[in-house]
Amino acid sequence: MSGLWILFRRELGQTWGRGGGPVLALTFFACVATLLPLAVGASPARLGSVAPGAAWLALALASLLSLERLFERDFEDGTLDLLALGPAPLEAVALAKGLAQWLANGAPLALLAPVVAVALGAGLSLVPMIFISALIGGLGLSFTGGIGAALSLGSRRGGVLIAVIVLPLFAPPVIFGAGVIDAYASGLDWRPALGFLSAYSLAALALGPLAMAAACRNALS
Amino acid sequence: MITGLHLENLAIRRGERLLFAGLCLDLGASEALALTGANGAGKTSLLRAIAGLIAPHEGCVRFAGAKGDLEPEDARSSGIHLLGHQDGLKSAGTAWDELLFQVRWTGGSEASARAACRLLDLERLLGLEVRKLSAGQRRRLALARLVASPRALWLLDEPMAPLDSERRHLFGHLMGEHLAAGGMIIAAVHDPLPIPVRRLDLVFS
Hints:
Strand content of chain B: 25-35%
Helix content of chain B: 25-40%
Order of helices and strands of chain B: EEEHEEHEHHHEHEE
Shape of chain A: elongated
Largest sheet of chain B: 5 strands, parallel
Number of strands of chain B: 9
Helix content of chain A: over 70%
Oligomer: heterodimer
Low-confidence stretches of chain A: none
Number of helices of chain A: 10
Mean pLDDT of chain B: 90
CATH topology of the domain at 4-89 and 151-202 in chain B: Rossmann fold
Shape of chain B: globular
Structural class of chain A: mainly alpha
Largest sheet of chain A: none
Low-confidence stretches of chain B: none
Strand order of the largest sheet of chain B: 6-7-8-3-9
Number of domains of chain A: 1
């Protein structure tokens, strides 16, 4: 257990060393959101109606950015060999990596998401709901994203491959995440959507490490 | 603790090519094996197969403990050091941080890491980033992990290549101590090791 804790703390520290880490993802998130009014027009009525969905789309894209380095560096420099011969199985290693990815990238993005949505014209009353849905959804995005990152190990241009593998899997959290906010904004029952979003994230949390570990073993052999 | 290694009828295939087949080997406590052979003969693959990273095409790898056979998972998670060309040291981290993580991950402590640094004459280098170390210094840092966290079976891939003659002598001494304490070493080498060893020559097929 103490070994895993050491790994988790190291992974948290490493995210800052991975090409800017969270700062890069946050900047990308803000950039995509800024482009939206330029594309669909700046009229508040039109922007306000697409703001939650657009914020969720930008969130999904921004969480792709740091995935490429989640396993790739460790694979190239031999760290993955070392991790495979450590006190914990690779499944636990993948769990620690996914949680660190969520805390270091998903949580800052969840903090920025309400800011982006409000800037696009969403009402202030939506702020808590946007933060909560982005934080819960971010857990799912980190773990399904991790599966793509592990599957693309050893391929050239892994980043593009990850996006192609992972983006279809991001459809449910985008649907339910934007759905929560839409339902809440229009006074409908938002709990089913939040329930589905949570279910997706928990499923990703439970199954992601198994898939990541299997993909890592395959890449190492 | 691992007290014996048994390879039974081992065959390893990489892609289409069968590297070797029918390899049998018994290695006991305090024994060292020098693995020789041409480039591509399968030395690295054999080391990785023993470490469980490559699944053998045929045959099996067994680890013996004091009370019968060990579960391969247990043996590998607490009994094996694998040191290859890629040492897992992040070039952006400081030497001390990188070493300390590797040592603690493999079951050592901060105190044992410090002692290993003294032994390998690394103390002046610990504040430097790993990328600023020379190849030989970097290898010494990687070797410090072996000394700092006690694991019975060392699987080494060309461990001596970047070391100068004085450090080769020192490392020979450290390997001798490891064997004297009941450890085992399998090293893929081209130059002779400075300790008494058995030899296994893999033939390029």
